[in-house]
């Protein structure tokens, strides 16, 4: 089945980015969230990014109008009844994702693939709450979605070859490079990245250095585009903690224990850039 209309669930930083690249690739995108305000704010943000692309001569005003017209707001998951493909990018909480997948399984047409942008949660477990586990897959975009080329495509134990092939093709249509990964905690990306971020947080916690110094070492010493603490703020400290918990519980190995400082900051509501405060301040940005 040719994919023409998709649903993206969650209009946060990831869902918004996925919706944008899909609309730019010519797909109609039903953008779903629990509150219309979140969707409107995200559409305004996408509009600003497209204005920048117009100013740089990459797209025309008409292109912007066409892209924006392909983004259709939705606050009702039942709208999945009319789409050919779904990618879920709601918050990194298993109980929320399971609820969404149960509903999607009821409302989406038979044969429709249900993908998740989860950073670390088991695809096999999500698939098991549906009656179509062969059609459930991980489609893990990287942040910021319009810029980063990679999509990790995660195969659950029951994911079919046909489902993988469709997602690979869709990823390429969106201008991305898919990499096939089997379903283990943190996949590849976050199994490697997140312990480094967690260790950087331990460096503050143990008084090795301040945040600025730690980031400077990794930027100037290892040529990382962002230091690990700036990156943690950018990803969202709630998401970082959720991923560390998945690694810690998934491998039952103390080497993945989340730093107590990370837990404390999340409890305080210091979630990084999106809340205005994390390892650095973003009140005026
Ligand atoms: C947690 C997970 O599960 C998986 C993950 O995603 S882990 C995170 C993976 N991502 C990374 O590691 C990002 C590392 N950081 C970077 O690559 C760069 O710092 C960056 C691309 C984010 C910004 O680059 P920069 O050169 O410092 O800044 P800047 O010049 O402002 O931006 C470069 C481009 O990115 C775009 N950009 C930056 N932030 C953006 C955003 N939030 N949304 C969309 N576009 C964005 C800018 O518009 C700019 O585009 P143009 O060149 O086309 O104008
Ligand atoms: N932040 C990052 O760098 C990356 C995050 N991810 C994953 O993407 C997902 C989303 O992360 P972000 O966009 O960063 O989070 P975010 O906090 O920016 O956005 C999450 C959005 O989901 C919405 N939401 C919550 N419950 C919902 C529901 N039941 N139905 C519909 N929408 C709902 C929220 O209102 C919010 O707008 C998570 O699974 C995360 O692990 C994947 C790659 C990178």
The number of distinct β-strands equals 8
CATH level-4 homologous superfamily of the largest domain: NAD(P)-binding Rossmann-like Domain
Q: How much helical structure, as a percent, in the residues?
A: 40-55%
Q: Any idea what the CATH architecture of the largest domain is?
A: 3-Layer(aba) Sandwich
CATH topology of the largest domain: Rossmann fold
Ions, cofactors and other bound molecules: acetoacetyl-coenzyme A, 1,4-dihydronicotinamide adenine dinucleotide
What percent of residues are in strands? 5-15%
Structural class: alpha/beta
- What is the topology, as strand order, of the major beta sheet? 3-2-1-4-5-6-7-8
Helix-strand pattern: EHEHHEEHEHEEHEHHHHH
Report the biggest beta sheet as strand number plus sense, adding barrel if it closes: 8 strands, mixed
Average pLDDT reading? 97
What's the overall geometry? globular
Task: Please give the radius of gyration in angstroms.
Answer: 19 Å
Determine and state the CATH class of the largest domain: Alpha Beta
DSSP summary: helix tally: 11
How far is it from the N-terminal to the C-terminal residue, by CA?
44 Å
Counted up, domains total 2
GO molecular function, one term: NAD+ binding
Keywords: NAD, Oxidoreductase
Protein name: 3-hydroxybutyryl-CoA dehydrogenase
Domain 3-hydroxyacyl-CoA dehydrogenase NAD binding: 6-183
